[in-house]
Write a structure and sequence with these properties.
Pfam families: MIF. The chain is of the alpha+beta class. It has helices at 17-32, 71-81; strands at 3-8, 40-44, 59-64.
Length: 88
């Protein structure tokens, strides 16, 4: 069962998490070639985290899957789930 764990230090209060879960589930299934019925998404907000020495808004994602992952798929997953940020 593919499982994408997403954590962010941003509060999810007032955020439409259903839309995030649905889109993430569809994207993982499509990119790794597994039925969406087997995909699990875990979304956690308000998780204390630091990135680059700051506590600015950040997120961490980790995908676990038996099969379906390779360097080409990893690049596609990274592109699909990465939000470009501005350098300091």
């Amino acid at each position: 069962m593919p499982c994408l764990n997403l954590s962010t230090n941003v509060s999810l209060d007032g955020v439409d998490t259903s839309a995030i879960l649905s889109e993430a589930s569809k994207t993982v299934a499509r990119l790794i070639g597994k039925p969406e019925a087997y995909v699990m998404i875990v979304l956690k907000g308000s998780v204390p985290m630091s990135f680059g020495g700051t506590e600015q808004p950040a997120a961490y994602g980790e995908l676990v899957s038996i099969g379906g992952l390779n360097s080409d798929v990893n690049k596609k997953l990274s592109a699909a789930f990465t939000i470009p940020c501005c350098p300091n």
